[in-house]
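Data availability excerpt. The first of two example chains:
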Amino acid sequence: MAVERIDVTIAMAPGGTLTLSYSASGTISGVRLPDAAAPERTDGLWQHSCFEAFLRGGEDYAEYNFSPSTQWAAYRFDGYRAGMRDADIAGPEIETTIAPERFDLRVAIDLPAGATRLGLAAVIEESPGRKSYWALAHPPGAPDFHHIDCFALDLAAAMHP
């Protein structure tokens, strides 16, 4: 496996801006990273190397996809995989850094109103086309980042230890 570890640092600024700093460590030359592209909303990013965040309050939740290309996507859901629609947000600024043994992606987003739980995830596509799925928590069975078990981080506890 090309990526051996993924770490994420989170920070909350006054006013509700959530900064996520993802760091994938391993043999980065073995990871399929998309070419740099215009930082625009793009669907289907999860089909390739992509870093993700899921934020929920009650039944509804938001999904954010951040590509190493700097493309992004944001969706709102009314419930588990139900009522999917584009989230009305300004395009986030995505910063990336690549080194032989590490790939970093940093992004800041506005925290959705009422969000109390966070799920962090990544899809890593390796050069031979194999994919690995990373998350703070996985439900039993196939990877499913939308599953309630994946919203493993209590934001209040994380921000005020």
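And the second chain:
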Amino acid sequence: MLVLASASPRRRELLERVGVAIVVRPADVDESVHPGEAALPYVRRVAAAKAAAAVRAADQWALAADTIVVVDGDVLGKAADEAEAAAMLRRLAGRRHQVTTAVALHGPGGDHALDVTTDVDVVALDDDAIAAYVRSGEWRGKAGAYAIQGIAGALVAAVRGSVTNVIGLPLAEVVALLRATGAAAVDLGRGRPA
């Protein structure tokens, strides 16, 4: 059984939808950005650390992912409070940003990694729209302070690339990786309906 090194219910649900049997074992690692660390090396480092921390037996495979939102070269992580969430949304409003998810797979067949970047265009937002979204609370625990799979889907004008990447796990690429490595069986017919 594949270890999912994440507490994200979205990642769990995406894997279960495609019939991957998992056990959830969140990994507690330092997710702070190191001084001078660029966005891509940062997200790759965190994903790899999570995967390595979740393995408890030599024959186990662990899958981890970390998702970041990048605008103007700055990493927008999870907002600490409503004021920070509103500030992030103001930065994203009316413009394009990138969402990158780094995926790490650690196990008996070695270490494997991939990353996927998706461009997301956010509609123009006034202060009332931002305040209303922040009041919803949906931003909590989400990179960039929004959840495209929720009501924030109405704030997104366009997505260029993987939508599941924006949700937190680039599913097509992960399925291909799991199949190529033999780390987990994928049974598209066994998953729950979307």
